[in-house]
Every structure is written in structure tokens, then in C-alpha cells.
Inverse folding.
């Protein structure tokens, strides 16, 4: 019983990190309808960012996360500004290939810079593990879960309760409407993309003391982010949060019944089925809505 | 009708230039192994293999626009079928090759059918096939039948074309791959040019609704193209497995392979015949070039991956369709299009991506 | 002969078509007119197999073809043109016609021969090597029409094929539509260019708000009070498009 409880609490806390990664992608993919296959690699930027800064002690760790988040957001801003913006009108295809390639480039850049796999940092928090009724939770895991939850709440406040949030949602609902009321849509897109990437980088920083980082992690996290976002649905941010927790729990409890790689295979297999049965059309429809295609080059990939 | 003079199809400068390039390239490809030491023949084999891999992806990915990452599964199936059947159970390698092709084709057919039945769009096709490939890798990693994390190593003593194995001199691999590449390219060119099926594929890519209203059976043709494409990709997997003599989920079921196929085709020009081949050979040359600067082999693959990514991002960002469209535009700019002064009633052929003779 | 009976279609509670009945005889031209939003395109999509009707039947020469897939509809002889061909810009002109020719052709050579004949008939042969995106919009419409004609259809649905054409091109298409009628094809044309309706239509069906409000000869329907009201009730910008009678050249659309 205590094993189950132990796994469940670990899974829940891990799930909250997935939720944080997921809402970053939710803002980009579900709200802005931009395909970002590099999302998990922004988590990687956060992880390697904090790793490179080698923070000593708690305040330095938080400072490192903030710096890494700003770095991730800046890269995100530049990616949207210089790579994706022009592709916006061309539809999802070029975005898909550009961000997928970008992810690969980031992965191998880190491969060259950090050839050692599984690097990590020691516990940066000023407290040790928690133990209660047979369940032990390490300080970094507990802190990462709690901080993720706080950030999720902050983002939902931003999206649903502030003017910026209503502008973001407005652009999502009617792009033409937003243009008509004088919103600088490009800027909103850039900033939202930067926000999404920054959140991913923060999640990376929080994840680092728990999960040793290797360049190959980026792809895995991208897929997990998409799993969370697709299962969470387009309805509201809370679906994404719930899906993140669900994924964390499923992973942790699944490890009870199936060996590691097989359990992951099962998750991906299930995700494939989810993709089949969900009503589709998000990306393509969004692209058509933004601008009727006048440019006839189909960016080579049809 | 009689068989016309094949030279009359070389009626534009572009076709003439391409014909010369193709002939020179073929001659060079044939004599290449006798010009270089054996290690370089191995490099040549790898280059042709990349070309073959890109080319077969391009059939579904470029012509039909199915941005599939399930080709990773096809590549892996080709490799694992020869590992399991030939290395473990001493079935002839060619039989294993055919088995790999058939299994991959069936998988491709089913994936495409499922995706169309559920109305999955291009983006979710990519995401779904990626998930499927990762699932396949997970299964291979935990299933002893597929060598789990240890992989399967070659065991065998026989050599020669009948066994698809050469221990010392890689020129056997080289010529076999060249043969496959030439036959598959010519076959695809003929398919795309002469059959209703092949000619329908660009219409399906551009607009499935219009394609259907022209009597094209969109779902069926998509599935057939995917089956063909993935079936042929499996051949590349079998060849590389025989060459490196070890197969594991980490060596043949990685996402990098799928991305390399996709990106390689796009860099060369998706939906063109020569593009994926040019890009595949180009990337192999780039790898070798980096090695000559004594970059460690782990970093060589890192740098080539980065190079792939940067090139494709720039291509897409600036809206060009890849190497082949640039080449065609360049040739036209230098030699002219050769169309304007044509007498309209002269019998002519409408399209020509590459020179290929026609029985007219 | 094409017959549409009691066809209804709604999209999420919005009734686009309601109990629509009409027939289009072989060797005659039926013009489908009506203000924007009247449901003309939806009707054509239903006949062409792109959409399934909620109720009602479509028969072709007595055979029930309701809701068959587009490819089957084409195989049975229902061919159509499309209003927008913008996103198929990278397709080759010759191939567009040749692929459609496979309904009649047995094999490559025959398909090419048919396509060539059709392109020459439409004075398009010199554009055969071009991409649809690189020729003027007017010509893409002609290619579209040639593509439909090359399959030797029983029913031809022309969706605003005249829009944006010059008077010379309109004449060319009018001639071709006339030839097509002589070959026994039942032609249904959605048309805003009255020059074409006047010149060609044997029968006019007026659709308004998803219902047939009048049918008969052009003279009959233009005297029909309900038709006049339907048009005058619409904003002037749209009314312009259906000037009756009109001797002005076609107005560019899209």
C-alpha cells in the first residue's frame, strides 16, 4: 500500500511539472495555434541553463532559474519573430518542420557542449526530504511540484483575469477582430510564444535536481507536452493541467505493472489512439483563417 | 505509333542539361569504387543509402504530402527482419528483405488508412506517427525477440550477392544499393509519369477535395503510396543492418532517422525525383568532410544534424522549395527556357522533372 | 437527367437548404441563380458528393446517387468546376486536364491525347507546361472547365466559371458550354454573369434562403415578384452582380 501511495505522490508532483510544461505549449499550440515541436527543447534550455550557472544555495538557484527562463523566453521570441512569423500564413507544415529541425539543432548543440549524459545538480533547497505515513518525498521534488502549481495558478490568473490575458484570448478567438480593434497581433504572438517558452524553461530548471539531463530528453518532453495538450483539449487551461497530473500519475503507477520501456511504449500507443479518435483540424483550419493563402509555394512539403 | 527518337524529348535546355548531369552522375557512380580505396567505397555506400532512404520517404512525404515519421518503423522493420530471420534463423537475406518490405508496406497501408478514416490532418499525422515510432522503439527495447536493449548481432559465414553480405570489400553493398536506387528511381519516375495512380498523387497533396471530384480515390491512393513508400524504406533498413552487422532499437528506431529522411527530402526538394538523392549524397559528403577535420565521430553526427536543421530552417524560412527547384531556376536563367520559340503543333510532352524517355 | 428532390441541409442549426427540388435535363442548361448565401454552392457540393444531404435524394438517369463519394460521383458522370483554385497553384496545367481524362481514357497515351484535344479547344495548349498558380486567374477557370469537359460528363456543374473572365473569354466559354450541351450533357451553372445566363440558360432556377422561389425561362423568373424582392432586399453591392438584363462585361470576382 505504501508503495502505491509513494508512487502516487511522486506521480502527482511529477504531473504538476508536466502541467507547467503543458500550459506553456497550451498557450502556443491551443491558444495561438502555432505548432511548436521544439517545446520540450525549451525545457532542455532551462535545464542546461541552470546547470551551466552552477548555482550554490537556494537564492542562487532561484536566480539561475529566472535567468534561464529569460533566456528561454528570449530564444522563443526570436524564433517566433524570425522563423515562424513569416510561416504563419503558410500553414502548419512549415512550422512543423522548422520547429522539429530547431529542436534537433538544439539537441545536438547541447550534445556537443555537454557530451556527458545524465548531469544534475545537488539539492539546492534549504531543507531535506519529507516523510509522513511511510511516504518519503525529496525536497526538490516537493518544491518543484509546489512551485509548478503556483506558476500554473499565476498563468491562469494572467490568462483569465488580466487585460493581457483577454487580448491573448481575443487573438485566439478572432484574429481579424483583434486586428480591427487595433491590437498588434504580431507582438501578441511573439510575447505569448516567449511566455510559453519561458514557462518551459522554468519547468526545466525545477526539473533539473530531480531528473538528470541529457540532450535526448528534449524529444521525450516535447511528446509529453503534446500528450498533455492534446488530451487536455482546447476547452480551457484546466484541462491541460488535469492531463499533466494524469500523465504523471499514469507514468508512476504504470511502472508498477510494466517494465520501464514497455510502459512508455504503452503510453505512446495510447496517445496514438487518442490522436485518431479526437476531432481534428486545429492547425490547418487556423492557418486558413489567418490569411487565405496567396503565396502559392507550398514550402516544398505539400 | 512507333518508337520515336528519344532525343526529341530533350527539347528544352533544362532537360538537356539534366540528361547530361544524370549520365555523368551514373557513369561516375559506376566507376567510383574503382577510383577510391575501400573505406571510401563504404562512404559511397552510406551516401547511396541516405539517398535511397530520402527517396523512399519522398514518395509519401513529398508527392502526397504525408509528413510521416512512421518510416522509422519501416526502416527498423527492414533491419530487424534480416536480424531475426537471417542472423538467428538462417533464412536467406533476400527472403528477409522481402518479408521486411511486405510487413512495412502493410503497416504503412494501415496507418494511412486509419489516419484518413479518422480525418487526421497533416500535423496530427506527424505527431501520431512519431508517437507510433516511439512506441515501436519502446517495444523493441523490452522484447527479447527483437534483442531488447542488447540488440542482435550478425552471425553467419556466407558471403556474396546471394547472401547480401560482403565482409571485406564494401563494393558489393555499394553496387547493390546503387542498383536498388536506380531501379526504384526509374520505377517511381515511370509511375509518376505514366500511371493514373502516380499522376493523381500531386492532386491529393494539393487539394484532396478537388482530387476526389476528379475521380481520384484519395483514401486508397494515399494508403497505397504510403505502403509503397514505407515498403521501399524497409530495403534501406535491411541494407544498413547487413552492413553494420548489428541491429538494436537504438541504432535503427531513432527519431533522428525519421527526421533525416523528412528533412533530407525537403532540402533536396520534396516531390522532386532528384532532390532527395542529391540531398542524401550531399549530407554524406558533408559528414566525410567533417571527419577529415579530425572531428570525433560522435561530434560529426552532431554537426551534420545541426547542419541539416539549419539548412532546412533557412530553406523554409525563405520560401524556396529546396535544391532542385533552385537548380531548375538556375539552369533556366543560364540557358533559357527554350519554350517560347517552339512551334505549337510540334508533338511534345507536357511535363518533365527529369529526363526519361517515352515510348510514344 | 439529373433530378434533385426534397433536398435539405443544415449546418449546426442553420438551415442552408430546405426542400429543394429541381431537374436538369440532358442537352440543356439549367442556371442556378440567387443572392449570395442562398445555398447554391451547398447544393452543388451535395450533387457533387462533397456533402451529404440531411434529407432528400439526388438521382442521375434514375439511379440514386445521393451522398455517394465525390470520386464515385465523378465516375458516374457528375463533373464539376471549383470556384477557387488558388491553393492548387503548383499543379501543372496539362496534368490537371490529363488526370481527369482517365474517366474516358484507357491508359496514358489516350489520356494525354484527350487532354491535348481539350486544351487546344480551349486555346490553352501554349500554357500546358505552366503551373496553375503562374497563369492568370481567368485562365485557371478555363483550365478548370477543360478539366471538367475532358471527362465527357453526363452532368456538368459549373460553379461561377465565368467570374473574372474578359468578354472574349466569356464568349469562348459560352461557345464551349453550348458545344457541351449539344453533346447531350445536363449542365447546371451557378452564374452571376448575366451575359452568360441570357445567352445559354434554357431553364432558370432561383434560389433564395435555401428555397427554390421560382423556376422557368429567364423571362418568366425576372418578372416574378418574389425574385425581384429577393434581389432588391439584398444590399446594393450584391444586387449589382445580378443586373438583369446586363450587357456589361463580367465583373471580376476574387
Amino acid at each position: 500500500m505504501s508503495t502505491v501511495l509513494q508512487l502516487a505522490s511522486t506521480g502527482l508532483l511529477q504531473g504538476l511539472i508536466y502541467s507547467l510544461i503543458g500550459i506553456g505549449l497550451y498557450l502556443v499550440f491551443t491558444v495561438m495555434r502555432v505548432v511548436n515541436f521544439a517545446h520540450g527543447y525549451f525545457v532542455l534550455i532551462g535545464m542546461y541553463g541552470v546547470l551551466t550557472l552552477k548555482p550554490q544555495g537556494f537564492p542562487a538557484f532561484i536566480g539561475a532559474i529566472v535567468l534561464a527562463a529569460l533566456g528561454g523566453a528570449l530564444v522563443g521570441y526570436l524564433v517566433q519573430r524570425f522563423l515562424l512569423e513569416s510561416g504563419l500564413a503558410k500553414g502548419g507544415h512549415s512550422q512543423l518542420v522548422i520547429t522539429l529541425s530547431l529542436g534537433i539543432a538544439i539537441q545536438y548543440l547541447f550534445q556537443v557542449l555537454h557530451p556527458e549524459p545524465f548531469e544534475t545538480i545537488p539539492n539546492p533547497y534549504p531543507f531535506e526530504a519529507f516523510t509522513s505515513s511511510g511516504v518519503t518525498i525529496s525536497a526538490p521534488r516537493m518544491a518543484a511540484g509546489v512551485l509548478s502549481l503556483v506558476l500554473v495558478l499565476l498563468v491562469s490568473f494572467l490568462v483569465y483575469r488580466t487585460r493581457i490575458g483577454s487580448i491573448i484570448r481575443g487573438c485566439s478567438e478572432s484574429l481579424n477582430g483583434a486586428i480591427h480593434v487595433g491590437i498588434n497581433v504580431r507582438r501578441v504572438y511573439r510575447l505569448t510564444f516567449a511566455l510559453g517558452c519561458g514557462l518551459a524553461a522554468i519547468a526545466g530548471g525545477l526539473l533539473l535536481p530531480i531528473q538528470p539531463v541529457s540532450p535526448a530528453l528534449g524529444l521525450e518532453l516535447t511528446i509529453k507536452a503534446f500528450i498533455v495538450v492534446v488530451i487536455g483539449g482546447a476547452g480551457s487551461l484546466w484541462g491541460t493541467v488535469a492531463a499533466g497530473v494524469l500523465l504523471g500519475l499514469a507514468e508512476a503507477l504504470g511502472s508498477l505493472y510494466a517494465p520501464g520501456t514497455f510502459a512508455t511504449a504503452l503510453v505512446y500507443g495510447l496517445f496514438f489512439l487518442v490522436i485518431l479518435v479526437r476531432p481534428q483540424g486545429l492547425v490547418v483550419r487556423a492557418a486558413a483563417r489567418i490569411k487565405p493563402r496567396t503565396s502559392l509555394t507550398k514550402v516544398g512539403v505539400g | 505509333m512507333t518508337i520515336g527518337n528519344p532525343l526529341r524529348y530533350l527539347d528544352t535546355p533544362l532537360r538537356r542539361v539534366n540528361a547530361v548531369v544524370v549520365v555523368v552522375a551514373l557513369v561516375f557512380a559506376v566507376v567510383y569504387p574503382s577510383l577510391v580505396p575501400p573505406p571510401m567505397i563504404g562512404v559511397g555506400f552510406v551516401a547511396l543509402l541516405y539517398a535511397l532512404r530520402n527517396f523512399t520517404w519522398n514518395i509519401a512525404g513529398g508527392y502526397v504530402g504525408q509528413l510521416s515519421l512512421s518510416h522509422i518503423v519501416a526502416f527498423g522493420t527492414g533491419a530487424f527482419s534480416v536480424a531475426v530471420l537471417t542472423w538467428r534463423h538462417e533464412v536467406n537475406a533476400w527472403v528477409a528483405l522481402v518479408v521486411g518490405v511486405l510487413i512495412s508496406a502493410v503497416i504503412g497501408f494501415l496507418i494511412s488508412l486509419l489516419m484518413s478514416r479518422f480525418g487526421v490532418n497533416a500535423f496530427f499525422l506527424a505527431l501520431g506517427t512519431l508517437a507510433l515510432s516511439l512506441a515501436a522503439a519502446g517495444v523493441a527495447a523490452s522484447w527479447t525477440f527483437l534483442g531488447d536493449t542488447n540488440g542482435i548481432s550478425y552471425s553467419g559465414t556466407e558471403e556474396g550477392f546471394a547472401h547480401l553480405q560482403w565482409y571485406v570489400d564494401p563494393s558489393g553493398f555499394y553496387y547493390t544499393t546503387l542498383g536498388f536506387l536506380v531501379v526504384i528511381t526509374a520505377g517511381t519516375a515511370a509511375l509518376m509519369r505514366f500511371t493514373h495512380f502516380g499522376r493523381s498523387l500531386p492532386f491529393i497533396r494539393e487539394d484532396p477535395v478537388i482530387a476526389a471530384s476528379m475521380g481520384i480515390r484519395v483514401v486508397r491512393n494515399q494508403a497505397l503510396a504510403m505502403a509503397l513508400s514505407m515498403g521501399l524504406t524497409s530495403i534501406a533498413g535491411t541494407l544498413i543492418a547487413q552492413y553494420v552487422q548489428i541491429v538494436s532499437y537504438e541504432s535503427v528506431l531513432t527519431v533522428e532517422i525519421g527526421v533525416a529522411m523528412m528533412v533530407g527530402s525537403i532540402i533536396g526538394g520534396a516531390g522532386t525525383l532528384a532532390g532527395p538523392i542529391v540531398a542524401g549524397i550531399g549530407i554524406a559528403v558533408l559528414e566525410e568532410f567533417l571527419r577529415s577535420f579530425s572531428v570525433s565521430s560522435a561530434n560529426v553526427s552532431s554537426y551534420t544534424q545541426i547542419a541539416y536543421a539549419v539548412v532546412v530552417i533557412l530553406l523554409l524560412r525563405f520560401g524556396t522549395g529546396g535544391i532542385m527547384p533552385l537548380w531548375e531556376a538556375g539552369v533556366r536563367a543560364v540557358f533559357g527556357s527554350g519554350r517560347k520559340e517552339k512551334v505549337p503543333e510540334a508533338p511534345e510532352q507536357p511535363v518533365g522533372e527529369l529526363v526519361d524517355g517515352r515510348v510514344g | 437527367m439529373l433530378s434533385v428532390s426534397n433536398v435539405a441541409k443544415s449546418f449546426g442549426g442553420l438551415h442552408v437548404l430546405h426542400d429543394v427540388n429541381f431537374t436538369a435535363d440532358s442537352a440543356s442548361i439549367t442556371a442556378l441563380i440567387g443572392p449570395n448565401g442562398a445555398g447554391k454552392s451547398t447544393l452543388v457540393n451535395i450533387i457533387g458528393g462533397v456533402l451529404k444531404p440531411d434529407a432528400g435524394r439526388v438521382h442521375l438517369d434514375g439511379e440514386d446517387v445521393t451522398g455517394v463519394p465525390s470520386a464515385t460521383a465523378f465516375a458516374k458522370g457528375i463533373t464539376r468546376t471549383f470556384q477557387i483554385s488558388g491553393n492548387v497553384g503548383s499543379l501543372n496545367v496539362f496534368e490537371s486536364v490529363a488526370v481527369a481524362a482517365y474517366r474516358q481514357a484507357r491508359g496514358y497515351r489516350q489520356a494525354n491525347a484527350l487532354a491535348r484535344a481539350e486544351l487546344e479547344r480551349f486555346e490553352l495548349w501554349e500554357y500546358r507546361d505552366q503551373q496553375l498558380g503562374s497563369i492568370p486567374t481567368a485562365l485557371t477557370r478555363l483550365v478548370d472547365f477543360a478539366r471538367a469537359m475532358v471527362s465527357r460528363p453526363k452532368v456538368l456543374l459549373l460553379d461561377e466559371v465565368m467570374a473574372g473572365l474578359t468578354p472574349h473569354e466569356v464568349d469562348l466559354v459560352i461557345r464551349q458550354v453550348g458545344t457541351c450541351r449539344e453533346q447531350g450533357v445536363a449542365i447546371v451553372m451557378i452564374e452571376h454573369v448575366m451575359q452568360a445566363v441570357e445567352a445559354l440558360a434554357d431553364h432558370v432556377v432561383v434560389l433564395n434562403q435555401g428555397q427554390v422561389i421560382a423556376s422557368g425561362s429567364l423571362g418568366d423568373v425576372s418578372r416574378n415578384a418574389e425574385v425581384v424582392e429577393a434581389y432588391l432586399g439584398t444590399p446594393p453591392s450584391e444586387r449589382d452582380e445580378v443586373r438583369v438584363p446586363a450587357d456589361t462585361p463580367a465583373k471580376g470576382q476574387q
User: Anything to note?
Assistant: The domain at 1-77+153-254 of chain C is CATH 3.40.50.300 (Rossmann fold).
